[in-house]
Each structure stands twice: as C-alpha cells, then as structure tokens.
Amino acid sequence: MDTQEQVNYTSQLRQMRILAEAALTHYDLGTVRLSLLAHRGNTIFRVTAMNRQRVFEEGEESVLPESGRFVLRLCDPSSLEMPMLQSELIWLAALRREAELVVPEPVFTRTGELVFKVMVEDVSEVRYAMLFRWVEGRFVDGGLSPSLLERVGTFMARLHQHARYFTPPAGFIRPRWEWEQTFGRAIFFEPSLIDSPHQKLITPKVQHLLHTTCEWLREELQSLPRDPDNYGLIHFDLQQENYLFHQGEVRAIDFNDCCWNYYLFDIAITLGGIAGRPDEQAMRKTFFKGYKRIRALPAHYEERLHIFTAITIMKRMHYLWTSSTPTTQAAFPAYLQFASEHLPQLMNPKVRST
C-alpha cells in the first residue's frame, strides 16, 4: 500500500484498539493484553486476561492470578445488523449444547449482553462487540492428511445433521445466499464499470466464458431442491484457517458468515482447499467417508458439487477483481488462468459424470 493508505490503515487500527479497550470494560476480565489477529471486514483481537481471584489463607486475604484467553470481534454495523449477530450466537450455543460440537462460546457482559454497540468520544468509528472464549487447538496447514480430513468430514456432517432439525426461535435471522446477490446482474465482470489494473485481461473470450458460466449456474441452481435434507444453516467458510485439531478432535471457529444455503456448498468450500494437490482424489474419498458415517449424501452429489465448485471459483475471482488492496489484486492474473482452465471442465457433462 502507498504512504496515504498506510496512514489511513494505521489510523483505523488505532481507533479499533481504542474501541476494543472500551468494549472490554463491559467484562470482568481484570488486566488484559490485546493482540491484533485480523483487520478486514471485522477486526479481531486476541485477549489475554489476568483475573484477580480472591482467596483466604490463614485469616488473610490474598489475590491469585488466573489467566484466560478470549477472542474479541468488532463488527461494522453496516455489514450485519444486531439481530443477525445475535442469531449467530444462538446457533453456536445450540451446536455446543445439542450437537456437542466444539465451536466458539460467547461470553456475557456484566449486564447479561452477548452483543452490544461500542462508541467512544472523538472516535469516528462505531462497532458491535462480542467476546468468545478461546478455542484450543492447532492448525495443520500443509500437514493435512486424508485421515485428518476424514474427521473434518464427520464434523461437517454432524453440523449439517444438527442444522437439518434445528428449529430457529422467534426473531432468528441469518442471511440467505441467493444467486442474484452475485451472479444475477449482466454487469458481472464488465471491465468498463470497475477500475481494475487487470482490465485488459478480461478479453472478449474471457467475458464469454464468464457469462456462459453464469447462465449455466443459473439453470443448474433452479433445478436443485431446497428441502431440509439439502438446504439449511451452514458454516460457509470452513476452510483450513477455520478448523483446527485438539487431541484428535476437530473444532471450528469463525461462524461470522453462517447462512441458509445448500449443504453441498459448505462441502465445496472445504474441498476447495485441497484442489490441485497430488492426493486430491484420496483426500476427497476420505472426506466423504467421514461425512457418510453420520449423514447420507444426496444422489448424484459429485455431479452437483461441480455447480458449487464453479460458484466458489467465480466468487473468489470476483473478490480478487474488485479488491482495492494491491496485494490482493496481484493474485488475480494467476487465478484467472486457473479459472479459465477449470470452469469449462466443470460445465462439461462428460467430466461431471466421471
């Protein structure tokens, strides 16, 4: 980023830290240390707290430190409204209580709130704040093996099985992913409408491929059933950076994007993380083995997965294309090449049937 962008970024981070410190005064955490984890749509801090626990020993009062780790999330009110954030926490609580899955546990404020608005005088930004207990575990990154991915498949099936029978309470509201949100407009990837350094890469041939893909996806999605066996609440971002392992147990974090959607879409996002690996087919096989241990997959699921794999490619490409961050934009040419090779294969009936 250039000098002015760096100044703006630093200034915004300073404001986020001030808001974070103000938010933490709503909890009984004592002295805390803040460490920035992410600053994108949301701003995420790791919170290391030292609770001052009072005990009595030999007639004298002593104070013993009790450490704890938490995650503080600051959300832009323009992205998700309060009822949507509260609904995410309702589902997390249900997953912990009813499915016995290890997912983030929200922490109440002293006044019994899970989400609240935080404002500070002389700070222009306003955010919603929520605190979660730290989820212990480790990310495997390049060490992901077929046997580990099998456990991820089982975890996802348990999550989907819970979603299948979940009855949302009154006032529960989470986004519903709809085709028109991203692909329903004719201007998709229209070079003249977006200021991008890669406009010249969107040639007439590429535009034809993208528009053809959009039309194919529209037709395919219209044929898919939206019954409870196929459609419900999903994580919607269960990539390697959002699932971890603790003593062999799979755990998941970051449910910020959870929404009503097709279960196969959730699967496509997770399997997208192993695309191109030499052992991709073995990995997919073990994932499905783990999933089917808990829950049956729909008929022709492999063929239908091609639909959602194509959507994830298009979504990723559109994100890189419209990003205002130079480092993100720089990844667009290579990903466009990847998409140009894979989208025709996904639309080919002969390929989809193999």
Automatic annotation (TrEMBL):
<dbReference type="InterPro" id="IPR011009">
    <property type="entry name" value="Kinase-like_dom_sf"/>
</dbReference>
<feature type="domain" description="Aminoglycoside phosphotransferase">
    <location>
        <begin position="66"/>
        <end position="295"/>
    </location>
</feature>
<dbReference type="Pfam" id="PF01636">
    <property type="entry name" value="APH"/>
</dbReference>
<dbReference type="InterPro" id="IPR050249">
    <property type="entry name" value="Pseudomonas-type_ThrB"/>
</dbReference>
<protein>
    <submittedName>
        <fullName>Aminoglycoside phosphotransferase</fullName>
    </submittedName>
</protein>
<comment type="similarity">
    <text>Belongs to the pseudomonas-type ThrB family.</text>
</comment>
<dbReference type="InterPro" id="IPR002575">
    <property type="entry name" value="Aminoglycoside_PTrfase"/>
</dbReference>
<keyword id="KW-0808">Transferase</keyword>
<dbReference type="GO" id="GO:0019202">
    <property type="term" value="F:amino acid kinase activity"/>
</dbReference>
